Amino acid sequence: MAAGMDHGQPTTDMPSAGPEERWISLRELAERRGISQHSAARLVRRHRWRRQTDNRGHVLALVPTEALDRPADTPTAGTGHGTVPSTGPPPGLSDAAVETVLAALRDAHAAELARVTERLDRAEAMTISLRETAIKAQADLVAVQAQAETAQEAARTAQERLEQAQRAQAAQQARGRLVKLWMALRGR
Predict the structure, then answer these.
(1) Sequence-separated contacts (24+) of 153-157 with Cβ below 8 Å
(2) For residue range 4-37, what is the model confidence (pLDDT) as tens digits?
(3) Domain residues for 29?
(4) Pick from 65, 63, 70: which is nearest to 14 by CA?
């Protein structure tokens, strides 16, 4: 369809649009839907609508006409801030049903919080127990080191006594030989 269009309308020959489709600029789509231009671009990509750039550099999209007549996607139409979550109950749910669901969620949350708190308490108790065990093990190590030093000192003392006894025995044996030699020399 060859048509000269202005302000978001094609200014060059555009591919034909069916009777149910219309070429529209992203700016106009955003205004019609009450969304930002960025959201309009995402909408075009999400629905995979055809896009084309006109001679002025404006992006045009081939949008189904029913999508143009659709009311704004957000409760804050015209603000351009995207979707805002609803604060009311979903359609079809009574206040009692919502309260029941909320109470169940609160109970589940409280139960999970209690389980996590219990695990944290057990972990803290285990940490304290391990710390006490480590302190006791360190004290035991110091005691064992002291016993080892005492045993080494006792071994050194015993070694010195053994060496003294060996020297005394060697001296006594030497005296015994001298006495025998002396006796042998005298008895002749």
Answers:
(1) none
(2) 444 444 444 556 666 789 899 988 888 888 888 8
(3) 1-83
(4) 63
